[in-house]
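Minimal example, chain plus fe (iii) ion.
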Amino acid sequence: MGQKGREIVKMNVDELLTLLNKALADEWLAYYQYWIGAKVVKGPMKDAVIAELTLHATEELSHAELISTRIIQLGGTPVLSPDEWTKISNCAYDAPVNPYVEVVLEQNIKGEQCAIKTYSELLDITREGDPVTYNIILTILSQEVEHEEDLSSLKEDLELMLSRGK
Ligand code: FE
Ligand code: FE
Ligand code: MG
């Protein structure tokens, strides 16, 4: 922990650490939801969907990396056990029980919308008190916004393809 780095934080660090650990749990669940979704997904445009889901999985993992690094900088402990993930997360884990492309896309769009809401609130909370965390959250939020749009546009293409000639 860097002493001066923690000193300049003008908000309750323990509360911030709790919120960052909740976001870290979200990222691991999002990572796995994309990763396993890419393995099991079936249906039209499967290859394009697999490519996007796989890329998003790696991007969620990079978010987990950014958040855990920040938790350690602030003197906290990143959540140590996967048992905790579903207990402390903000966003629900949606298992791709139905592997049909459209269903998997919809589940992940819902996940991104939850992530956008969560990070947008974290931005408001950190704006004044912790510009370093704010900057990290802003980077992540920009990517979640991109993820939502990527998936929505794939879903739109899928719907256009399926309605051809009707
Ligand atoms: Fe993420
Ligand atoms: Fe995302
Ligand atoms: Mg993408």
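The chain has a mean pLDDT of 96. Residues 131-162 form the longest helix (32 residues).
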